[in-house]
FkbM family methyltransferase
Amino acid sequence: MYHGIPGRHRRIVAFYGRFLGPGDIAFDVGAHVGSRVRAWRKLGVRVVALEPQPDCLTVLRLLFGRDDGVVIAPVAVGAQVGTARLGLSSATPTVSSMSPEWIGTVGADRGFARVRWDRSVEVPVTTLDALIAEHGEPAFVKIDVEGFELDVLRGLGRPVRALSFEYLPPAHDAALAALDLVDALGRRHGGAYTYNYSPVETMTLASDEWLDADGLRALLDRFRPLGRSGDVYARLSPDH
């Protein structure tokens, strides 16, 4: 479902072509089984794929372990270097999370009624700042970590050119907190982010124009009642 659906890979490549090009560096925080890694490599991007789940790591190493343009790091990303516990969902690994609060929030939602977080493992944690020091400045950072997005962003001390983070309607307030942090980070360093939203895995942007933070909040308010997840995209304005 991640690598074999006809046309899906082509749509992902075309979508990320607006953010990335040959020679760029991109961080895939929560790489899962590498659908973004595959697309970014098609664009000539050097990729740092970060994934702490053991089963996903097996797939990543099978698909990209011999690719010199991909670094596979078996770590999570957070606000500070250390360790943390990752709650695993054996039946639905895409919702494994390091945020007990997020698990509690979405676990009470009807759409997650059958999801169980049945075990946990301790995983090493690094930060975006540490990754930048080791691998260089990324042109794009994808953050998909099931409720831990705010912690990941707290480990970033300066703006990057573009990034994305997941939006889930049951955790609406958490997404707005992440938006506030990104917006403040840009302004604190003399920059300005603009925003857009892509529902689910459509690889399309919901707004024809890039929006300021208030505009994005209004857009998410329209999508929230639909109950469908997606991704918020942020990019520094050309003047910055």
User: Anything to note?
Assistant: Residues 8-81+128-237 form a domain with the Rossmann fold fold (CATH 3.40.50.150).
